Structures are given as C-alpha cells and as structure tokens.
Amino acid sequence: MSNEDYLDEPPDSATLTTYDRAHVKLYMRLLDAEADGADWREVVSVLFAIDPDDDPDRARQVHASHLARARWMTERGYHQLLRGTQH
Q1: CA 13 to chain centre
Q2: Sign (positive or negative) of CA dihedral 14, 17, 23, 28
Q3: What does DSSP assign to residue 5?
Q4: Single pTM value for the model
Q5: pLDDT on residue 16
Q6: Does 85 score more than 70 pLDDT?
Q7: How far apart are CA 82 and CA 4, in angstroms?
Q8: Cα–Cα dist 84/50, whole Å
Q9: Closest CA relative to residue 66, chosen from 36, 39, 37, 27
C-alpha cells in the first residue's frame, strides 16, 4: 500500500463510506494482525508503508484510527455493507 492510498484517519461517520468500501481488505488485515498478536509497529510498516521509528506519533495514530474503524465495521458497518447501502 502506498501513502496515497489511505488517509491518516478514516472518515468518522455513522454510516459506511466510500473510503470504508475501498479499504475493507485493509480493515480485515488489521483485525487479523491484532488477532495474531502482531506488533503494531510491524503492522503499520507493512500495511501503511510508514516507518514507526521515523514518525512514531503519526504511525501510532494511523494504526489506531484504522483499527478502530475496522472494529466499527465488525459491529455496525458490515450490516450496511451486506445491504449494499452507500453514503
């Protein structure tokens, strides 16, 4: 994934966004990495091409915000995804 493919924080919306639809695979990879106990620094390096040693605050924020949105998708967003709702 290149830096142009994602925002530092996904849109904060109560509904499924175009960004969410475009990043479903990323969200699944984040959730899988968390379930496997992967170190967040390795995850952000692999999935977002950010060196956590060069920019630790940004790296942590990018990882945390996308992981939070991935969790939201498992709780609420997937219903909209399955129904085909787009906002």
Answers
A1: 14
A2: positive
A3: G
A4: 0.84
A5: 87
A6: no
A7: 27
A8: 32
A9: 27
| Degrees, nearest 5: CA angle 51-49-66 | 100
What confidence tens digit (pLDDT) does each residue in 21-78 have? 899 999 999 999 999 999 999 999 999 999 999 999 999 999 999 999 999 988 876 6
Q: Where are the alpha helices (DSSP H) in 9-85?
A: 18-22, 24-35, 40-48, 56-72, 78-83
Question: Which SS3 state, helix, strand or coil, does residue 20 take?
Answer: helix
- Cα separation, 8 vs 3, whole angstroms: 9
Burial class for 58, CB neighbours closer than 10 Å (0-12, 13-18, 19+): middle
d(CA 41, CA 46): 9
The answer to whether 49 and 42 are in contact (CB under 8 A) is no
Phi and psi at residue 15, to the nearest 5°: -125, 160
